[in-house]
Design brief:
Organism: Mesorhizobium huakuii
Shape: globular
EC number: 1.-.-.-, 1.4.3.5
Strand content: 35-45%
Protein name: Pyridoxamine 5'-phosphate oxidase family protein
Structural class: alpha+beta
Order of helices and strands: HEEEEHEEHEE
Domain Pyridoxamine 5'-phosphate oxidase N-terminal: 7-118
Helix content: 10-25%
Number of helices: 3
InterPro entries: F420H2_bilvrd_red/Heme_oxyg, Pyridox_Oxase_N, Split_barrel_FMN-bd
Radius of gyration: 16 Å
């Protein structure tokens, strides 16, 4: 991947905080859910409940698709990312604690949480590793995408 497209992807990741992840339910239907995320380079992380449907879906099939975007009143200003990826539960406690410490940094203007931040044993943390990244940028033309295999 060339440096310019990598920088574009990293900029989009750093300027957004939520993504929609789609996993596969046991009956084969996709399940799309909005989650907060943090990233370390092109590796993304998100949290969910230990027994959530997302966690169960990913335990059975670790493939997921995701989108990261924002609302805009100007159709030709649409930008965002979509990815095909694999998600693995974070097992290493140090990595889990690092992810949990990164999450509040994405929300510097947020009021204090009404509860304590969950610990690594109270949530499932997934590491998301992209395999295909589609960079959407309508400023380059209607529906323009750059496809990156990672």
């Amino acid at each position: 991947m060339d440096q310019k497209i990598r920088d574009t992807i990293l900029n989009l990741l750093s300027t957004h905080r939520i993504m929609t992840v789609a996993t596969l339910r046991p009956d084969g239907w996709p399940q799309a859910t909005t989650v907060g995320y943090v990233n370390d380079g092109l590796t993304l992380y998100f949290l969910c409940g230990l027994e959530s449907q997302k966690a169960k879906n990913l335990a059975r099939d670790n493939r997921l698709s995701l989108t990261i975007d924002h609302d805009t009143a100007d159709l030709m200003a649409i930008t965002g990312l979509s990815m095909a990826a694999h998600a693995e539960p974070v097992q290493d406690r140090a990595e889990a604690e690092k992810v949990l410490s990164m999450l509040p940094l994405k929300y510097p203007d947020a009021p204090p949480l009404p509860m304590k931040m969950p610990g690594p044993d109270e949530v499932r943390i997934f590491r998301v590793m992209p395999t295909i990244i589609s960079v959407l940028d309508y400023t380059k033309g209607f529906g323009h995408t750059d496809l990156v295999t990672y």
